[in-house]
Design a protein that fits this description.
Structural class: alpha/beta
CATH architecture of the largest domain: 2-Layer Sandwich
Shape: globular
Number of helices: 11
Oligomer: single chain
CATH topology of the largest domain: Dihydrodipicolinate Reductase, domain 2
Number of domains: 2
Strand content: 15-25%
Distance between the termini: 33 Å
Strand order of the largest sheet: 14-13-12-11-7-10-9-8-15
Amino acid sequence: MGNAVNGMNYAPKGKPKPVVKPGEFVFSAVRLDHGHIYGMCNGLSEAGGAIKYVYDRDPKKVEAFLKAFPQAKPARSEEEALEDRETHMIAGAAVTGERCALGLKALLAGKDYFTDKAPFTTLSQLESAKETVQKTGRRYMVYYSERLHVEGAVLAGYMVDEGLIGKVVNVAGFGPHRLMAHARPDWFFIKENYGGILCDIGSHQIEQYLHFAGEEDAQVISSRIGNYSNPQYPELDDFGDCALNGKKGTTNYFRVDWYTPDGLRTWGDGRTLILGTEGYIEIRKYVDIAREGSGGNHVFLVNGDGEKYVDATGVTGYPFFGQLILDSLNRTENAMTQAHAFKAAELCLKAQAQAVDLTPHVAGRK
């Protein structure tokens, strides 16, 4: 499922690095509406997680999933997976607008929940999740894959933590994606279901900013959305951008779009630039254009010691998943704090809600 052309099925595979003994951590996959479920389950499995059940209302999706994870057992119902006593965590990639409802069921069933991004489409969903987390003591974790499942981004985070560029003052992110509209499900084009571009793929960008800048909160200064090229899907935002100011004084700008041309060998030329007081880092996540044989994970570092390039492929692995498993078992917060997961979600929802529509002339825009 690691299709480089199709970001819907982006599912990196790393080297197995179990953090638990076989059968010590059990998870089940429920709702397979987005292909990111494969990356989520790859990560948990490589970290030693044992998948038990899989459930989706569409038997064809279950059949395809079982080809990738033959050790899973088809559940007879969603409840069978949610109520299973051996299962520690429910991994789900439901329709975006339905992710919160599934998460609440999982939490109330005594399970931790690991959902694809974006975790919510409304602020009221976020508030209900906060209340249920507080009530149950369970975790509502989010697969922000553009940082967690990209070795170049992991390495850049280590560089920042080591102080190699001084104090971070600005993060700029660029998240272009290939639309492949013919392969998308109908729900993808309905704003109530997918939340809008700043809520959807913008969530990656805001989460990265908070992480790299060490910010716990931020304010949306401006945000814009538009539909320049897809009037046949009037509720689709095919462009969005946003500027934020962090509580600690850092700044962020990001741009997301669905304009990746067919001539690019991968689904998007995702890039992140991290500016510090003593240097800067650029991550070219998935491709270095016009260089034959070039994959992703390109990290460029410039500081007082000079210029450095690192191909991060195979260097860091994906530590988030092992940390997530241990957090679930030990009730710690090393992979990602609950506050961080929710703050990234909150800010992308606010950015979407207050966005200026640059193309109101498109009939049917919401």
